[in-house]
Specification:
The protein is mainly alpha-helical. The protein is built from 1 helix and no strands. The longest helix has 38 residues. The relative contact order is 0.05.
């Protein structure tokens, strides 16, 4: 019994692939190193910006809740 496809024709791969495409492994020069201290400082900058934003939002919500509480108690 033949299961699967009934047509047993072969599948051809295209031969018109450009040879100018980048290979999987390219020779990377050693001059493009990244300093870990630079990455840490950038991360600390973004975290401090996020912390300031979070503190601002939290303080605004607490202030709004306090104002609402005073308004409703009058």
């Amino acid at each position: 019994m033949n299961k699967g496809f009934t047509d047993n024709s072969s599948i051809e791969t295209p031969n018109d692939i450009n040879m100018t495409e980048k290979p999987l492994k390219s020779k990377v020069s050693r001059q493009n190193r990244v300093d870990i201290n630079v990455l840490k400082s950038k991360l600390q900058e973004t975290e401090s910006k996020e912390l300031k934003k979070n503190i601002y939002v939290l303080s605004t919500l607490i202030l709004a809740l306090g104002a609402l509480g005073i308004y409703l108690s009058l």
